[in-house]
Every structure is written in structure tokens, then in C-alpha cells.
Design a protein that fits this description.
This protein is mainly β. It is 13% helix and 50% strand. The chain has three helices and 30 strands. The strands form eight sheets. It has a five-stranded mixed β-sheet, with no helix packed on it. The longest helix has 22 residues, at 23-44.
């Protein structure tokens, strides 16, 4: 045991002396070795990048698929906005719409950032060959707020610019599937035609155009029927005893509705209302005109019969006392009142009428009260007396 300790002390002494003798060389060698190890580590875990691309899909579903290769666990960012996590196989996939690329060589920046925090930007050259413009169109008629419409469904490449009949111009299709609503009035105004020279229904055609990022376009022409006549619907009371009548109806939004010098405008929901005086007893005829820019005016004749005022008849009541039913109420001064055809007694605008209920009868009684006066319309109301108990005749003592 003593010999081993002596040997160990001897070895430590020799090693210490050797380190003192070659101290500088040892330190320099250690620095070089550590630097070499760090360099090897950084090189092994450095950002790397490779990519390939292909065009998939047909027509409006076409898309460029870019598959990148980078160290597993790193992040790849395309165009400084689209970031993908690299999977365990070192792959990250990006999709690019054809209209996001110009024709020819497109230099696309990809930044690779490894888990250590190191990053590097690479440029990938993607060549885009000219592509035909996809365009599928359907047009269907419709109505809303009393206005004739055309619903135009367009399927095209996302980000194409869509123009329809001079009404919609260079509208960008975000998804490639859009439905646009245009009115017959807008189509007529865009064409600049005088509606007064056209029939009420015109066979026209509208042009739908799709233009891609390279300026290449596709055009489709669709035949449609256009209504040139302003739509007008009137809801009218046929008769009234009022001095003022309110006429309402429907017309396209912003249509000017006029009767003589009185005018109103149809609202955004296509409704309008106009109050007119009834100056004549009996029939009153009004000419109602609907006027709208780009359409033919429409005039409708409306007849409203002004009636005589009804004679007043109110405050009807009834009461039963024994076998006697009494009906009371008020009426206009000078008016006569009948109940079930029998005259009532009138005093100071109030009337009274009595009737003896039949004995031994139980039922509901209905009475027609009619007030009438010269120069007025008759006023008729109905009173129903509830079921009454059976009355018995008094018995005569024998």
C-alpha cells in the first residue's frame, strides 16, 4: 500500500512538472481543439435549403406546390409571411396561387431558421409558364325589393379581376368562386340606351370578363332578358269616409312616386306611402306615376270612393229587470234608431228601447241596433244578451 502511494505521488509530481514545462502549448492546443469542435457542431447544424415545385389541379383549382428540404425541427418562411415547421423528414410544403406569380422567372425568398437560432435566406427560382384563364359563368334572374336583378355566379382563378356588363369593373376574386348581383336598371344605364325607345322586355347580352395577373383574359357572353319598365304595385283602399287617404305600395328603391304636384321616393326596402286629399264625394281618380332614371315611366290609375260619414252610434249597454230588457246608447243629434226594426225612444241624443223577455225560454238573444240620418251612412251594431234563466209564470191560487 505504501509503494502504491509513493508511485502515485511520483506520477502526480511528474505530471505537474510536465504541465508547468508545456503550459503554453497545452492552452493553445485546447483552444484550437474547442474551436474545431464548435465549428464542426455549427457546420453540422447549419441552415440548409433545397426545393422543388410542381403545378397541380385543373382550371380554377390550379396551384403551385413548392416542397422544401431543410434541417428537421427548423422553420421555413416564404416571402417573409408564410411560415411552415419542417417535419421529421426535413420537408415543408408551400402552396402558391398562379396569380401570385408573374409569367417567367419568379425569385422567391425562403428564410431557414434552425433550432439554434441561426438563420439564412435563400432564393428559389420558380418559372411560371403561361396558363389559360379559367372562367365558368351562370346567370339567373331574381327580384328583391321589387327590383329585377341578375345573379351572376363566376368560377375562375383566385385573384383574377372580374368585370360584368360595365357595372362591375376589375373586382378581385379572393376565392375564385363569387356571386355578383346587378340590377336590370344598372345594365340599361351601363349600355347607355334610351329606355323610351325600347320595348318593355328586351333581349340583351351581358359580357363577363376575367383577367389574370399577366393581363391574359377570358370573355363569356350570356343572353338575358331585361325589363325596361319601372315596376309599380299599389295597395289602395277601395272606399273610405275620411277626407285624407293614404296610398302605399312598392317600387324599386329611389323611384320617384308622384300624383300631381305631390311626390315621394321609394325607400331602400322598395316601399312608399303618399297621403292624398279626397275632394269629391263618390269616386276620386288619381294618376300615380313611377319615375326612375334608366327605365320607362309607369302610370297607374287609382279610384277611391269617398263615402258619407257614418252616423254616430256608441255607448251601447243593456240591463235586465225582471222580464224587461232595456238597451241604451247615444247617437248623433237628429238621428233615428231602430232595434230589430222597432223604433227606440230618443231624448237629448240618447236612446232607450225595452223588450219583454218571453217566459219559460232560456237562450242567447241577438239585437240589431241601426242608427240612420239623412246625409249620413247608416251605422249598424249588434248586441248579444247572454243566456237567461227560465222564468216561470206566477201560479194562481185555487
Amino acid at each position: 500500500m505504501s509503494a502504491f502511494r509513493d508511485y502515485l505521488d511520483f506520477f502526480i509530481t511528474r505530471l505537474t512538472n510536465w504541465f508547468k514545462m508545456y503550459k503554453r502549448q497545452i492552452i493553445v492546443s485546447s483552444i484550437i481543439f474547442c474551436t474545431l469542435m464548435v465549428c464542426i457542431f455549427l457546420y453540422t447544424h447549419r441552415p440548409t435549403f433545397e426545393a422543388t415545385h410542381r403545378l397541380t389541379g385543373v382550371d380554377e383549382e390550379r396551384v403551385y406546390v413548392v416542397e422544401t428540404q431543410a434541417p428537421p425541427g427548423s422553420q421555413v418562411t416564404m416571402n417573409k409571411k408564410d411560415t411552415q415547421q419542417v417535419d421529421n423528414n426535413g420537408s415543408a410544403i408551400f402552396r402558391i396561387l398562379p396569380n401570385e406569380l408573374k409569367g417567367g422567372i419568379n425569385k422567391i425568398p425562403f428564410q431557414v431558421k434552425v433550432p439554434l437560432g441561426l438563420s439564412k435566406t435563400y432564393t428559389y427560382n420558380l418559372e411560371k409558364t403561361p396558363l389559360p384563364v379559367a372562367l365558368k359563368v351562370t346567370v339567373s334572374p331574381d327580384t328583391a325589393n321589387f327590383e329585377n336583378l341578375k345573379k351572376v355566379s363566376v368560377v375562375t382563378d383566385p385573384l383574377n379581376k372580374i368585370s360584368i356588363a360595365g357595372v362591375i369593373i376589375n373586382r378581385i376574386s379572393e376565392t375564385g368562386q363569387d356571386t355578383f348581383t346587378i340590377t336590370d336598371n344598372q345594365i340599361l344605364q351601363a349600355k347607355g340606351e334610351d329606355p323610351a325607345q325600347l320595348p318593355d322586355i328586351v333581349d340583351e347580352s351581358i359580357e363577363i370578363t376575367a383577367v389574370n395577373v399577366d393581363g391574359k383574359k377570358e370573355v363569356q357572353t350570356v343572353p338575358v332578358k331585361i325589363f325596361t319598365l319601372t315596376q309599380l304595385s299599389i295597395n289602395q283602399p277601395r272606399e273610405t269616409d275620411s277626407d285624407i287617404v293614404t296610398i302605399d305600395g312598392n317600387a324599386p328603391p329611389n323611384t320617384i312616386i308622384s300624383v300631381g304636384d305631390k311626390k315621394t321616393v321609394a325607400g331602400n326596402d322598395g316601399t312608399f306611402s303618399l297621403s292624398l286629399p279626397l275632394t269629391n264625394m263618390g269616386p276620386n281618380i288619381f294618376q300615380i306615376t313611377a319615375e326612375r332614371l334608366g327605365e320607362k315611366n309607369v302610370t297607374r290609375a287609382v279610384t277611391i270612393n269617398k263615402l258619407l260619414s257614418k252616423v254616430e252610434l256608441s255607448t251601447l249597454s243593456h240591463k235586465i229587470n225582471g222580464h224587461t230588457l232595456t238597451i241604451e246608447g247615444t247617437s248623433s243629434a237628429g238621428a233615428a234608431v231602430k232595434i230589430n226594426g222597432q223604433p227606440a225612444i230618443i231624448e237629448g241624443g240618447k236612446f232607450t228601447w225595452q223588450w219583454e223577455l218571453p217566459p219559460q225560454v232560456s237562450k242567447r238573444y241577438t239585437f240589431i241596433v241601426e242608427a240612420y240620418k239623412e246625409g249620413y251612412r247608416n251605422n249598424i251594431k249588434t248586441i248579444t244578451v247572454p243566456h237567461m234563466p227560465v222564468y216561470r209564470e206566477p201560479q194562481t191560487a185555487v
